[in-house]
């Protein structure tokens, strides 16, 4: 049996579809199917029922999931321990929200690459919270407070926000007729909508929602309404007018650096962590966070 096939089995069991498993594993969906079928042949039993809406675990497959999880946990612990004793070279995978990664951190990691020729970076720009225990990333930069047990977290900075609108929209649409380009109905989105309500002193109609900052920025720039954006993004967009800033700090967003304790001992990971901490100080000064 190819033990690596267990990883494909577990991810498919968690996602329930070939396409979802392929995205997480960064493989083709045909590869996922082939590896799982190889595992079924190796163990001599059917692990999934192929349904029109996805792949459903069979009773035998359900019984094997806890065992496969223990094997994966031990394998990941072995890998983390092995990586903790190496020199500062190799790939460091950094999970960071797409906009923050592109604007705030990516430019500031260039000097580290130039100085350490043995290092490689892989920025995973996704709003998905990477599972550090499963090595989906080595380091995570998050805009939400970490809640997983057993991780080490350090607050890097707090990001100021503002209420923005396109120049023509703010100039030509009466304030009482403004609409909100908002975020989805998560705690983050609801808190931003509540801040706008307090800021304007009234409820505001919201007919456009998105789960990422770049989309909200695009909605606002297109003149579809006003929206809450980080200052580092809105202040540098020539299409937008800053209507109100968060003077009281009611809606500031923390930036957290998160790492698994085993990976913190890795020289290459420590090097990148220190670079991100230094970068956050420069970011705070440049964008007046």
UniProtKB/TrEMBL annotation:
PROSITE patterns: HTH_LYSR. Keywords: DNA-binding, Transcription, Transcription regulation. Transmembrane segments: none annotated. GO terms for molecular function: DNA binding; DNA-binding transcription factor activity. Pfam families: HTH_1 (PF00126), LysR_substrate (PF03466). Residues 1-58 form the HTH lysR-type domain. InterPro entries: LTTR, LysR_HTH_N, LysR_subst-bd, WH-like_DNA-bd_sf, WH_DNA-bd_sf. Belongs to the LysR transcriptional regulatory family. This is LysR family transcriptional regulator.
